[in-house]
């Protein structure tokens, strides 16, 4: 059965990619050349990937953020609504210790480095590979490292929901503000307003702001999800 599925997958792969690989027709170059020669001037981002997904395809990026918000919200709701174990007459057996000294020491040393790298990926995504989504995931990993290093972690811990809920809400409003700012300066929605305000202002500020807002949204949502999944009462 496994071999059959493998053969079918290979055949389907060739069916899909064959028309693009076999013909000698050149790939369309108009869009590529336009982005190459205008991406930096229009957005201020030398990294064309950031220029595209936070400039020319900003609508798609906002849609992805909304999808992530809906997914995280649904997952949090299901986890919070999961029934807690009922306490009967018989005492439950103690659970084995999961956080060893090695885990605590390793995560404690790695967490600051990982979180610093996450901020770097968000803040410099317009210059090098990275951006809000990638930096947010890295930043969430650092926060979860801190939780992994705490033997006594539980839902009422200080490293918990309220602060991350607040960050998530504020970052969502930050995104809303960034979407509406161009309209206040006579630009189209999601258009970089700094191209119309002042030539002395760096146009890349708009891209950086979007990266930071998206990164904080992703980091807070994934951290919340990870903390609830690590909750001992739902093992």
UniProtKB/TrEMBL annotation:
Localization (cell): Cell membrane
Na+/H+ antiporter MnhB subunit-related protein domain residues: 104-223
Entry's Gene Ontology cellular component terms: plasma membrane
A Pfam family per the record: MnhB
Membrane-spanning intervals of the chain: 6-27, 62-79, 100-121, 133-153, 165-185, 205-229
Coarse class of the protein's main subcellular location: membrane
Alphabetical keyword list: Cell membrane, Membrane, Transmembrane, Transmembrane helix
Membrane protein topology class: Multi-pass membrane protein
Coiled-coil annotated residue ranges, if any: none
InterPro entries: CPA3_antiporter_subunitB, MnhB
Family per record: Belongs to the CPA3 antiporters (TC 2.A.63) subunit B family.
Name used for this protein in its record: Na+/H+ antiporter MnhB subunit-related protein
Species of the source: Gracilinema caldarium (strain ATCC 51460 / DSM 7334 / H1) (Treponema caldarium)
């Amino acid at each position: 059965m496994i071999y059959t599925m493998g053969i079918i997958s290979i055949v389907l792969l060739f069916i899909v990619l064959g028309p693009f690989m076999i013909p000698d027709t050149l790939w369309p170059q108009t869009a590529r050349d336009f982005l190459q020669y205008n991406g930096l001037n229009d957005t201020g981002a030398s990294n064309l990937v950031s220029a595209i997904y936070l400039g020319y395809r900003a609508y798609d990026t906002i849609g992805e953020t909304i999808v992530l918000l809906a997914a995280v919200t649904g997952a949090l709701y299901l986890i919070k609504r999961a029934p807690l174990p009922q306490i009967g007459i018989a005492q439950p057996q103690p659970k084995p210790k999961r956080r060893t000294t090695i885990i605590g020491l390793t995560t404690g040393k790695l967490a600051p480095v990982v979180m610093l790298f996450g901020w770097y990926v968000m803040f410099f995504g317009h210059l090098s590979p990275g951006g809000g989504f990638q930096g947010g995931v890295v930043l969430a990993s650092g926060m979860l490292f801190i939780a992994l290093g705490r033997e006594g972690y539980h839902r009422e811990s200080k490293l918990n929901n309220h602060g991350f809920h607040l960050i998530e809400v504020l970052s969502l409003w930050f995104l809303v503000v960034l979407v509406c700012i161009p309209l206040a300066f006579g630009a189209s929605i999601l258009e970089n307003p700094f191209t119309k305000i002042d030539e002395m202002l760096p146009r890349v500020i708009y891209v950086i702001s979007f990266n930071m807002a998206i990164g904080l949204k992703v980091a807070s949502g994934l951290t919340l999800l990870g903390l609830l999944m690590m909750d001992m009462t739902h093992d």
